[in-house]
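From the pipeline queue, job 12 of 40. The input is one protein chain; the requested action is below.

Action: predict structure.
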Amino acid sequence: MDDDSRVRTWAPVCQAVAALLGPYAEVVLHDPGTDRILAVWNPMSARGPGDPSSLGELDSLDPTAPDVFGPYEKLLADGRRLSSVSAILRDADGRASVVVCVNLDRGPLEQAAAVLSAFGAPTVARPEPLFEHDWSERVQHVVGSYVRECGRPVERLTRADRLAVLARLEEAKVFAVRRAAPVVAGALRVSRSTLYGLLAELRAPNPKDHA
């Protein structure tokens, strides 16, 4: 099939894609007229030039069809999952001249994602006895947990947010430690005077409680 002018025309493009994604991607050039393979780069199976293309997997090759299909999933006989994309390359009259399919082996990507997930996610609960007496660690944990919950950086916490954080710290008995106030003020990015004002507001008796 190397003497086919379409192979000579599109081979540099197919080679470039195969070189960029190889050895994890197969690039196949199909003849939609005969439903045969014209050329293969980085073959992942025993298919070769002249073998059936099985382009029935594409919805349509008429002039009104989309020129790009996918990404869609395919499976190899050995169980490997592929992400595939197919592009119809048309002649000057709008007829499908060749179809280029790029089949990307998802296995290495899925393995890498699994490794990163294992490193990125804790596998056991936080060992509280180790931190029970580390009040500065408790401050960081309480403030950080609230920031993650509300989705705003600590600098953008509202007054109500800061009061909610201080209520959690109060419940955790952080302020029973004499040197806690400066550490909490630093974690919340506020001055000590602002912190004391917030604490006074938090601890002020609610008139409704005496109604």
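Job complete. The chain has a mean pLDDT of 83.
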